[in-house]
Amino acid sequence: MKEKFKGFILPKENAREAAIVADLEVFGIENLNEAIKVLAGDPQIQPVKVNAREEFAHNQNNYDVDFSDVREQLYHARLISGKTQEQVAKLIGCDASNLRCIELDQRNPLTHTLRKIQEFINAVFRDFQIG
Predict the structure, then answer these.
(1) What is the pLDDT of residue 31?
(2) Reduced DSSP (H G I as helix, E B as strand, rest coil) percent helix, strand, coil of the chain, to 5
(3) Is-contact 117 74, C-beta < 8 A?
C-alpha cells in the first residue's frame, strides 16, 4: 500500500525553504502546541506559501555571507601575481570596473564570477607556495 503524504510540520525557520516544493503543505511552527493545532485541523494555522520563481529571482544574488575575506584574498592574490585589475578581470571573465567594485566592497560577485575568483586565488597561492 502506497501512502501519500500531504505535507510537513517543521520548525518555522525551515518552513519557507521546504515550501518551495510544489504540491506539499508545509506548516511552520514554533512549539508543540501549534503542531497539535495543525494535526487537529485548526484553521488559524495556515500552510506556508512560497512562489518559487519570485523567491529564486529575489535571492539570486543576495548572499548571507561576508565577502570581506574573499575580497582581501583577491586583492593580495592580484598583488602577488603582479597583475593589474584589467588583467585579472580578463582572466575571470568580467570587466575591470566590475572587479574594482568587488574589491572595494561596492558589489558582490555573481556566482560564476565568484568561482572564477576562487580559481584565480587558488592558482596564485599554489604557485606562490611552490615558487
Answers:
(1) 94
(2) 55, 10, 35
(3) yes
